[in-house]
């Protein structure tokens, strides 16, 4: 009886120890931290870009007496619906990183289960994710069974299945966000946003979500800044009264400052999102024991730090 009990306890301890290796935990934690940073910064930046566009359009309205004020669209071309969809996509990516981090580092089953619930909810809210029924249940079915002696082993399996199941939806959302920041400074970039960097995950082609606007966020931002710059320049080129020239000068300064801001945000956000996609693919290999591409996860962390540093500098300009 004592021998049998000792065997059961010994087996349970052995299996409980078959969880993620220290290196795997470190890689998951690094990916999660970078995703939290990029997600928070990107969500805030989408809202700020729209606010900047509203401000620039208002400045143009003050200068352009030919505009009909009651028909004027202050947020064009960055409507609230488009920005909301981008924020929902960012929320989904943050939930993904948070769930993996909780599985790798937390022993509180309630926290883990709440993260898994948020994961499914946020991915379903992001229309570009296009989850299958199998992907929807990948998190909830596995994590609901966590507990007892087998928790570390089951947590490892949960991480592996979630990473495997969500690899393509995560890449899809990151590609959608990446294309919003591509090619700033090339006369408005790519207005159709019909390309992004090739997916590092085989079998994950990008599909534009149904009803998504054809104009990328940063393309629209540059267009708003360009219109204000051109109109203000036209006022300054004419012999207008001092007050009018003063308004035009302030509008020109605003447009030029935002064009510089857009260029910096586009450069660093694109780099961070492309790094996220590579790190997401590397995470799949890392959990399979393949350490050949762990540098992609480190590069993702570095890109996230660069994006945050740039945004902090821009916030004080």
Question: Which helices and strands occur, and which strands form pairs?
Answer:
Elements: H1 2-16, H2 22-63, H3 80-105, H4 109-125, H5 133-143, H6 151-181, H7 217-237, H8 242-287, H9 294-315
Helix pairs in contact: 2-3, 2-7, 2-8, 2-9, 3-4, 3-6, 4-5, 5-6, 6-8, 7-8, 8-9
Distance between the termini: 74 Å
What's the average pLDDT?
77
Strands, total number: 0
Q: In terms of structural class, how would the helical and strand content be classed? A: mainly alpha
Could you say which overall geometry the principal axes of the C-alpha atoms support?
Answer: elongated
Helix percentage: over 70%
The rounded Rg comes to: 24 Å
Sheet with most strands: none
Give the assembly state of these chains: single chain
Low-pLDDT runs of 5+ residues are 1-17, 185-194
Quickly count the domains: 1
Number of helices: 9
H-E string: HHHHHHHHH
Approximate strand percentage: under 5%
Describe this structure in words.
There is one protein chain. The protein is mainly α and about 325 residues long. It has one domain. The protein is built from nine helices and no strands. The longest helix has about 45 residues. The chain is elongated. The N terminus is likely disordered.
In short:
With 317 residues, the protein is mainly α. It is 73% helix and 0% strand. It has one domain (19-315).
């Amino acid at each position: 009886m004592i021998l049998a009990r000792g065997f059961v306890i010994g087996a349970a301890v052995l299996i409980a120890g078959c969880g993620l290796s220290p290196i795997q935990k470190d890689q998951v934690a690094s990916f999660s931290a970078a995703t939290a940073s990029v997600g928070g910064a990107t969500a805030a930046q989408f809202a700020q870009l729209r606010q900047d566009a509203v401000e620039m359009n208002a400045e143009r309205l003050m200068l352009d007496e030919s505009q009909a004020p009651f028909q004027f669209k202050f947020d064009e071309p960055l409507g609230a619906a488009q920005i909301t969809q981008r924020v929902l996509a960012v929320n989904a990516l943050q939930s993904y990183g948070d769930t993996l981090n909780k599985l790798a580092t937390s022993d509180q089953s309630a926290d883990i289960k709440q993260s898994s619930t948020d994961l499914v909810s946020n991915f379903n809210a992001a229309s570009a994710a296009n989850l299958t029924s199998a992907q929807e249940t990948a998190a909830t079915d596995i994590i609901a069974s966590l507990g007892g002696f087998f928790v570390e082993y089951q947590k490892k399996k949960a991480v592996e299945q979630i990473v495997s199941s969500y690899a393509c939806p995560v890449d899809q959302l990151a590609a959608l966000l990446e294309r919003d920041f591509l090619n700033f400074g090339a006369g408005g970039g790519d207005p159709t946003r019909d390309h992004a960097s090739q997916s590092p995950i085989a079998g994950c082609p990008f599909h534009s979500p149904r009803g998504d606007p054809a104009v990328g966020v940063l393309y629209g931002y540059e267009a708003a800044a360009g219109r204000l710059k051109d109109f203000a320049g036209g006022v300054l080129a004419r012999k207008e009264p001092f007050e009018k020239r003063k308004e035009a000068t302030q509008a020109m300064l605003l447009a030029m400052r935002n064009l510089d801001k857009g260029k910096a945000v586009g450069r660093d956000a694109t780099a961070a999102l492309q790094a996220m996609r590579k790190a997401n693919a590397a995470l799949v290999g890392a959990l399979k024991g393949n350490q050949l591409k762990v540098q992609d996860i480190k590069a993702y962390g570095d890109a996230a730090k660069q994006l945050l540093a740039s945004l902090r500098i821009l916030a004080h300009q």
